[in-house]
Amino acid sequence: MKSLAELAAIREQMKDKIVLREGSGDVRVVVGMATCGIAAGARPVLGAFVEGVAKAGLSGKVTVSQTGCIGVCRLEPIVEVFEAGKEKVTYVKMTAEKANRVIEEHLKGGKVVSEYTIGNAE
After folding, report:
1. CA dist., res. 13 & res. 9, Å (int)
2. Residue 103 structural domain
3. For 3-7, 21-25, 38-42, 56-60, which range has the lowest pLDDT when averaged over its residues?
């Protein structure tokens, strides 16, 4: 970084991601980021949700955040989706690729990707 203009450009570029992670959207996506989740690959999953939600134009509707231990370490990375008036959906053994499918089918399309949910975990 060599100038204030460059810093301002970086700030502007990151503004949407900060709002996305601290916003008050109708839908909350929460990624378990305790030690077990991180060890299982939760960082790329969180990144995929932040990037994917922004690319899909869902920033005003969906908030992506992180939490500590969700409590089922053997199923990490775990992602919980909270929607007003609906039952929480818990996705398990997530990957960045699975996150992209959840964004397309669940967050955009309104259809839970049932094969990734905790009820279908092996």
Report:
1. 6
2. 23-121
3. 21-25
Write out the two tokens for 105.
């089918």
Q: What was the pLDDT predicted at 99? A: 97
Average pLDDT over residues 85-93: 94
Residue 11 lies in a domain: no
Question: Is 7 a member of any domain?
Answer: no
Give me the sign of the Cα torsion angle 23, 58, 53, 97: positive
d(Cα 21, Cα 34) in Å, to the nearest integer? 17
- The CATH number assigned to the domain holding 68 equals 3.40.30.10
